[in-house]
Design goal:
Length: 381
């Protein structure tokens, strides 16, 4: 996954400290001492207050050192070894841990440290508290969940659309209607809700389902390659979805053509976008977009408005066998909140139309259930 920005200023993202180049060299020697010149897959996890730009600088430096040492970075399917690099911190140091696992699952760990860079006062003055509220928990995968108003919730899953009403005991189902596409759906199914007071549309790969009202809820589906709504209201932007895969083609309506992407975040009235691109290092094919550098975020990013600022809400490195966490970042890619943790991987993120909240869907690794949460942010001075 690779991130690029459309019409986004470079900002003042903190780069990696110079001494991290030495850490990358030492860590490469430790890893290559185990793997030799075999192909390796790399994943990164950021558990420290390290900016995405700094982590991107470090990950790029480490990959370059591995290439120079003859250990080719590879996809997991083509790798002889899996290397997970975790960055954490204590009161004095930044800690780098490289867990190298072979095909038998045997793991060897290398640990290195570097002095922590003091946090500037400007970075510390605005701290947000991310809050999560459970919306729904169920066995079937939840594709999207959006609030029509504080009393009404609409949930899209792989089989149906359900409306809920808020009760003192929680959300209670009001109505439900089956989703009946006219063709088979892909395995990695995604979906998107666009809700209005007088009805809704549900976008699925190659299909649009709609209802002219929420009460009663009567859903009809038709084959369609219409673009999916990314934003709503005046200046709304949509994007064409690749029905055979699980990402957007890069064609925006209206707007320029960009590289294929998994998700996107838009900032303010200026319609400045950041995209989570499918291919690492791939820049937009045309238009005014520009590459913003690799980041250690997963394929899901969304915009969140809080405390008078436009933020990026993003998860960590993708590993669907481990719990995930979300963190808020400024436009300059600086972390402005502590992580909010989940009991499994976050499999879907969608901003609310007003961008004051984000729906996060996680798969609980203990129960196997899918849990949809509303993520909001509170201000701390």
């Amino acid at each position: 996954m690779f991130l690029f920005a459309a019409m986004l200023p470079a900002g003042s993202a903190q780069q990696a400290p110079p001494e991290w180049a030495g850490v990358a060299q030492q860590l490469t020697r430790r890893v290559v001492g185990i793997t030799g010149q075999s192909p390796v897959s790399l994943t990164f996890e950021n558990l420290a207050r390290v900016s995405p730009q700094a982590l991107a600088d470090f990950s790029n430096a480490l990959m370059e050192q591995l290439r120079l040492a003859g250990a080719r970075p590879s996809t997991r399917a083509g790798a002889a070894y899996d290397v997970r690099v975790t960055i954490s911190e204590n009161a004095r140091e930044t800690v780098f841990a490289a867990e190298t696992a072979d095909a038998k699952g045997e793991v060897q760990v290398a640990l290195l440290t570097a002095p922590r860079k003091p946090v500037s006062n400007s970075a510390a003055t605005t701290v947000l508290l991310l809050q999560k509220a459970l919306l729904v928990r169920q066995e079937l995968p939840v594709l999207d969940a959006q609030m029509l108003n504080p009393q009404t919730l609409v949930v899209l899953d792989q089989d149906r659309i359900t409306t809920y009403g808020r009760q003192p005991s929680g959300w209670e189902s009001i109505a439900s209607a089956e989703v009946t596409p006219h063709h088979s759906m892909p395995r990695d199914l995604r979906g998107r809700l666009a809700i209005r007071p007088d009805g809704l549309e549900a976008y699925l790969p190659g299909t649009v389902c709609s209802s002219a009202s929420l009460a009663p809820l009567t859903v009809t589906c038709r084959d369609s390659d219409d673009p999916w709504a990314l934003t709503s209201g005046s200046g709304a932007v949509s994007a064409f979805y690749n029905a055979a895969r699980n990402f957007f083609t890069g064609v925006l309506v209206p707007g320029e053509r960009v590289a294929p992407f998994y998700s996107a975040a838009v900032f303010g009235e200026r319609s400045q976008w950041v995209f989570a691109a499918v291919k690492r290092g791939e820049c937009p094919a045309e238009g005014s977009s520009s590459c913003a550098g690799a980041h250690p975020w997963g394929s899901g990013i969304q915009a969140l408005r809080a405390c008078g600022a436009d933020l990026i809400l993003a998860g960590g490195a993708e590993d669907y066998g481990r719990p995930d966490a979300l963190r808020a970042y400024s436009e300059a890619r600086e972390p402005v909140s502590d992580p909010v943790e989940f009991s499994g991987p976050v499999v879907e993120l969608w901003s609310a139309p007003d961008r004051n909240s984000v729906t996060a869907v996680a798969r609980n690794l203990q129960t196997g259930n899918y849990e949809a949460y509303s993520i909001t942010a509170a201000c701390h001075e």
